[in-house]
Amino acid sequence: MTPLVEAIGLTKHFPVGGGGLFGRGAVALRAVDGVSFAILPGETLGLVGESGCGKSTLGRLLIRLIEPSGGTVLLDGSEITGLRGKALRDKRRAMQIVFQDPFGALNPRMSVEDIVMEPLQIHGARADAPTRARVREMLDLVGLPARAGTLFPHEFSGGQRQRIGIARALVLRPRLVVCDEPVSALDVSVQAQIVNLLQDLQGELGLTYLFIAHDLTVVKHISDRVVVMYLGKIVEIADKRTIYAAPLHPYTQALIAAVPVGNPRGRAQARARRQRIAGDIPSALNPPPGCRFHTRCPHVMDICRTREPVLGSPAPGHAVACHLVDAKQQENQQP
Ligand code: SF4
Q1: Each residue of 81-111: pLDDT tens digit?
Q2: Cβ of 297 below 6 Å from ligand 1
Q3: According to CATH, what is the number of the domain 5-94+206-333?
Q4: Where are the beta strands (DSSP E) in 166-302?
Q5: First-to-last CA distance in the chain?
Q6: Which of 233, 235, 301 to mutate to test the pocket of ligand 1 (most atoms within 8 A of CB)?
Q7: Which residue in 17, 33, 201, 277 has the fewest CB atoms around it within 10 Å?
Q8: What residues does each domain of the chain span?
């Protein structure tokens, strides 16, 4: 199946210091560093990792909200990385984003109807009766009452505001939606409602999601496949069942171990595994050489400190960047 969207060697380095774009004295913050993956039509790809690993930057790069420093993005097999002006706007219709902070993302001075109508107007629609009818239909689809259009963002709860954000993202009928931590700012009691809404809308409108989150329980619920990022790099990709039941990368194993578990035995095992993954994520200004995870990895070997592991494929549909996994695979292949 042809991917809906594909990233090839996608890179984003932000200049820091030096007074100018990579001027004298500036250093590069390597937020995303040569990342490749694809999303199939209709699937939900979960993207997980600690804060600062580059996942939000990657989501924005994918839909051209920010410019990459290198690499390519394909939509339906056509490159969109170099597009400008109208050509880019046309493609943008197909790619929208739901932000983490629903309040910050909504203009407090605009009515909900105007907020949801704005993307249509940007793409040439008039504020006429058919356009307003389309906005009302969208508000209804996300579960907001008919009178919501006349109100302002501050008159809604957090969950309702996120419904407005979703309506705004979907009113152009996009095909790809980047959901950037869409429930992280919400009460736990509301999170499930928004996740269920996103799933219902996916079925109804045939959407494809990149679902970015640090909460692995939410990602497990909604995703078909999962990408794990560490310090600007992808370290593991697999279908949801494999990632949660048999993760191979030590970092993925640590993330899964940190997921709260119900039974006491599971809790004890998770605690034991968590202790082995102490330490903070290093700075993306100066990532460790070799495997970027080597400063925290309980299985670190000499080779890990000097040679960067590449994404290998220990099984169909499963990719891992780890020397230990490579070594075990070679062992298994020996006669
Ligand atoms: Fe750990 Fe080495 Fe694998 Fe990196 S490459 S995750 S340091 S074993």
Answers
A1: 989 988 998 898 999 999 988 778 899 999 9
A2: yes
A3: 3.40.50.300
A4: 176-180, 208-212, 225-230, 233-239
A5: 35
A6: 301
A7: 17
A8: 5-94+206-333
